[in-house]
Amino acid sequence: MWKKRVIVVLTWAIVILFIPGCWDQDFLKDTRLSYILAFDRTDEGKIKQTVIIREMPTQEQAQPLNEVYSATGYTSRQTSDILRRKITGNVRYYKTRVFLLGKSLVKNNIYPFLDPVYRDPENPVNTQLAVVDGEAGKILEKKKIGNRLIGEFINKLLQNQEELSMFPKESMQSVYPVMLDPGQDFLLPYIRMANDEITAQGSAMFHGQHFTGTLDPYQTILYRILAGDPGKTARLTRQVIPGSSEDPLNFMSVEIQNSKRDFKLTIGNNDDIDVFIRCMINAEVPEFPRNKLHNTTVRNKLNDTLSKMLTKEAESIINKLQKAQCDAFGIGRELMAHHPEVWQKKKWSEDYPKVRFHTKIQVEITGSGILN
């Protein structure tokens, strides 16, 4: 019996000797963590990378500090290597929350500079992406907005606007496959800094890997409803009573409680493409100074007014997407999946703007707060 125990002990001792240790360990005390990155294109065509390094305090009551560094190179990997020469410690990107892309950069092909980001397993794929109207690095130089560090402020801004449906819901992980898909395009959050204030500007539209235009925040709300992907909250304010636009009595705010989208694609003669999008919206009214919502006639008239108004706006948004060649609804992907013989005949960059959209939005007011 004791011989068996000796053999077992010796066997485990030998196994332990050959088990590798933590050869790839990365001590936190030796690491400098990036919290937010910004990329711009210089006038010379080079890439400028700006990074915020979070410096954690040694005392319990002290606040974290931001250190801002920047470097310029021909590729994003080269700029990272140059940055490492300027920063003490090992720079690591696995805590990066946000990538900001300057407008000068996204007008060109954005994939080459994102390629090493996807290839490196240390980079987080759930990082948020946003386009900046202007130079992205200038925003990071602010370091703080009010009492918030700039990285936390932008991260929270993107999350809040996404929940309010004013920003599209995207990340590095969700954008990558779409960016390489010839049958679908995407939108990214769009922000601006003016007079030391950072504000949401809506969405940046992309065709393939190039920036092609923008939607404002309220157009983005309607786009997300049309796409069947509204955020936690979607609120719209419209003038529903004819008269002065300066009179608040003529306006009503509605909050989308739930929405349902019907989507249909048909192929006609000569391979013409028709797309039918119908959205049924149940809405609550948090603001309508004229009241009278208990009156069925008044409520039905408001339903009809809002339905026609939002349908017209939806048509305008789709027209804007087509002019920007942004196939955000994935019409091309639908063709590839269900009508491959038609897809093969199409040159999508030229044929997508010719797609005939038939859009209808039906609004029904189902509540008015505690004043029902």
TrEMBL record:
**GO terms (BP aspect):** spore germination
This protein's name: Ger(X)C family spore germination protein
Source organism of this protein record: Kroppenstedtia pulmonis
Residues of the Spore germination GerAC-like C-terminal domain: 201-369
- Provide the alphabetized UniProt keywords: Germination, Lipoprotein, Membrane, Palmitate, Signal
Q: How does it sit in the membrane?
A: Lipid-anchor
Segment forming the signal sequence: none
The record ties this protein, via Gene3D superfamilies, to:
Nutrient germinant receptor protein C, domain 3
- Domain of life, per UniProt, equals Bacteria
Where the record annotates domain Spore germination protein N-terminal, the positions are: 28-192
Subcellular localization, as worded in the UniProt entry: Membrane
**One cellular-component annotation, GO:** membrane
The UniProt entry's sequence similarity note says: Belongs to the GerABKC lipoprotein family.
